[in-house]
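Final report, closing paragraph on structural work. Over the funding period we assembled a curated collection of sequence-structure pairs, and we close with a single example.
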Amino acid sequence: MALAVTLALTFATVIVLIADLDRAAEGVIIIEQRPMAELKLLIRQKPAIP
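Its predicted structure, as stored:
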């Protein structure tokens, strides 16, 4: 019984965390987007490998 409750709570927590992180500028957890923007620029600057 305790194992089932623990698994259910863990699963629910993961789903809520994924939903919250999906909206980076809203929600409980706010994530700065600057590192992703810098990575995007870095990837665009690298030459394509033939």
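The mean pLDDT is 88. The two ends are 57 Å apart (CA to CA). We thank the funder for supporting this effort.
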